[in-house]
Fold:
Amino acid sequence: EAGVVQSPRYKIIEKKQPVAFWCNPISGHNTLYWYLQNLGQGPELLIRYENEEAVDDSQLPKDRFSAERLKGVDSTLKIQPAELGDSAVYLCASSLGTQETQYFGPGTRLLVL
Amino acid sequence: DQQVKQNSPSLSVQEGRISILNCDYTNSMFDYFLWYKKYPAEGPTFLISISSIKDKNEDGRFTVFLNKSAKHLSLHIVPSQPGDSAVYFCAASAKSGTYKYIFGTGTRLKVLA
Structure:
């Protein structure tokens, strides 16, 4: 069974540019999560989707970050404009349901110059 | 305020010996705990979990112990193998609440051959 797929794996951009990350969850997983992981820290939740509905986006900086999961399957996380402090690893995870174990993708490592 | 703490950033253990990784939490509402393992350039991989109704859960070489009164959990790996060298994250959630995983900062385990 394929795991959580993320692309791109690495992205280097200049500050003020836009960037987008894509995630395809494990087949059948209704719940999808985007996490941010800074160097030396654990993952921190940005947003959680139940199917196509964002049920917890309290940690998403809405002035520059946006996310969508239009058909309740794959999802896109966007930053516009990117700032130097956005350099981090962006992880996507999915689970069968909210109370089920979360499985992570390999992440997208973003470097903002 | 760090609700989940892993106070040892790193640990070195000889192959074949026991590795003990520790985790402390502050929120008494947490009732579900997990350990994830992370290799470089990969996403966290689920290892083992424990519900607060238990004080021990075993899976092969991995055992997680939960001490609710001390708000402490530990992961025991025995015997340790070089392939166990990775960063280990402890996570906690309140299943009766938002189900949000709160991660610790990780402990880097190095198993010496």
Summary: Residues 24 and 67 of chain B are 10 Å apart (CA to CA). The interface with chain A takes residues 4, 34, 36, 41-46, 49, 89, 91, 95, 98-101, 103-106 of chain B (CB under 8 Å). DSSP finds no helices and eleven strands in chain B. Chain B has a mean pLDDT of 94.
